[in-house]
Input
Amino acid sequence: MYTVELYARVRRAVVVDKMSEREAARQFGLARETVRKMLRYSVPPGYRRQQPARRPKLDAWVGAIDQILKNDKAEGRKQRHTAKRIFERLRDEHAYTGGYTIVKDYVRLRKLSQREMFVPLAHPAGDAQADFGEAMVVNRRCGAQGALSGDGPAAV
Output
């Protein structure tokens, strides 16, 4: 894996200093195709899997793991299963013969995919957002009643 600094040096040499791709490849000790890829991306793109990881030993127990995680949602935070405890339950209750790491990786993926996501609201200057609704209000101290609507308080 090449560093971001090397990417920057190669890109600067070719783009700013007008060095040829072939000369940059020779100077930095890289293949010409590598120099072309560095010019295509401003930072290293990283590794991306072409297909999801296969788990032939785990596939038979995925349903049991998902059920354990589903049941854990109803439990308190401290009462939920860890990946290690799920592995132990699979081994003891379901005769699982695979390794711990594959279970741990699957549990991590499932927990990340079930996390609650929030999208921040951003409004340009001059725009606003308003929510409208209705509610019946009763003041028990003085017995007064009223209604709240989207337009503000209204007397009944």
About this structure: The beta strands are 135-138, 145-149, 152-155.
